[in-house]
Amino acid sequence: MSVDLLHLWAQMGMFAKGIVVIMAIMSIYSLTIVFTKLVQLKRSERETRKFAPQFSRAIQEENLDQAISLAVSPSAFEQAYRSLRRGGTLVFVGLPADNKIELPIFETVLNGITVVGSIVGTRLDLREVFELHAAGLTRVITEVRSLETVNEAIEDVEAGRVPARVVFVP
Description:
two-stranded parallel ribbon, 6 helices, 5 strands, 17% strand
């Protein structure tokens, strides 16, 4: 049994042809999204491969001034803590699901480690903010700086000299 697509098309009514056209457009749109995402993924992988060795070295040397933990896993908080140098700061943004983490109190005090929290709202609040932004009702103000200037940027933020969100690029 053979299928002749032109014959099928000729036998279709207008409604069926409309559905086929819409499905063809949706398929092309989906393929475009897939291709775009693959290109973005490759770019991200390339940038990560450049950045990862420097970041890994800083973590292994326990040489970070600040660590921001966004995860909900206690082990992520503990790893972030271990990456800090003397006088470092650990910022909790995400919160552990079971409401507990283990940090060594003696080393925290002796090494002058600061632990702070940042509560930015609920997930519903965040979703609503994204919806407002998607509707064009908000504008994100950013300032792009090179990753090498991260320490100066932190000083500028703490001194109130940055009127925007700082985005770092390698």
